[in-house]
Task: inverse folding
């Protein structure tokens, strides 16, 4: 019979009492707002009605520290991102449910302290032995920005000091021509040889590259942002193509099963540096 017992049973009520005891001991009980299940929070300062909030499908930039509650004390276990921001595609399930809920309550520039039960935090996960299983936790969060893909692409161009783009296609591909070639324009059915590097906007190294890739534009085997962008270049051009995830790897991203990680996370806008060597 003991083998059938659920170790998580009763933890929600226990965590609630732990949180209330902590709030009472630290004179915070009358300062928090409750969500109704599992979380109490303080957010400052008040946000203007027009302030942009964290939005699912955008990229969120935030800092945080993580602590667990032990009696009337908060034991800090993760402060690595207190000064260095985290950048995440804000999708369902990317962060624990409590943190997702917390971010959705915030506006840009606000700081929030969120007290949450283990059901919506880490459950029986001890964070590599740093805290007891089924611990109530505290997230201290500062929401810096929540940005659409277009805003991310514009910021990338500014950071990289790219020239004004030559043009933007209807699908959102921006063509930044760095060096104009003297050859003919690439045609839809041609085989094109290119040198390229493929980059995440926040990547420090390319996730893919080649000095001499042969591309058959008739096959449709490449992502749209790459192949459509290529058809807007001339032989000899050196250019940067930036484009949204809708013409990249989309909502599924690019996942390496062997390594167990995303090469390109879902909803990632991309930047390709391309030199067109030949077309026939």
Result:
């Amino acid at each position: 019979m003991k083998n059938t017992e659920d170790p998580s049973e009763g933890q929600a009520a226990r965590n609630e009492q732990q949180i209330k005891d902590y709030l009472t001991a630290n004179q915070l009980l009358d300062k928090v707002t409750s969500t109704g299940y599992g979380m109490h929070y303080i957010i400052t300062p008040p946000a203007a009605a027009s302030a942009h909030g964290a939005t699912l499908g955008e990229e969120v930039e935030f800092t945080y520290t993580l602590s667990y509650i032990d009696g009337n004390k908060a034991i800090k276990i993760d402060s690595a991102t207190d000064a260095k921001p985290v950048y995440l595609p804000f999708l369902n399930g990317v962060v624990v449910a409590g943190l997702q809920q917390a971010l959705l309550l915030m506006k840009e520039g606000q700081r929030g302290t969120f007290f949450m039960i283990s059901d919506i935090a880490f459950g029986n996960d001890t964070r590599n032995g740093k805290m007891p299983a089924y611990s109530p936790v505290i997230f201290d969060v500062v929401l810096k920005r929540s940005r659409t893909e277009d805003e991310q692409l514009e910021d990338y161009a500014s950071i990289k000091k790219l020239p004004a783009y030559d043009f933007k296609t209807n699908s959102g591909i921006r063509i930044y021509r760095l060096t104009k070639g003297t050859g003919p324009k690439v045609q839809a059915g041609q085989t094109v040889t290119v040198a390229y590097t493929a980059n995440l906007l926040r990547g420090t190294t390319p996730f893919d590259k080649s000095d001499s890739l042969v591309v058959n534009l008739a096959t449709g085997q490449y992502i749209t942002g790459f192949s459509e962008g290529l058809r807007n270049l001339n032989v000899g051009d050196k250019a940067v193509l930036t484009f949204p995830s809708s013409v990249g790897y989309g909502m599924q991203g690019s996942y390496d099963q062997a390594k167990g990680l995303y090469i390109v996370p879902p909803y990632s806008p991309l930047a390709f540096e391309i030199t067109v060597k030949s077309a026939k």
In short: The domain at 149-279 is CATH 3.10.50.40 (Chitinase A; domain 3).
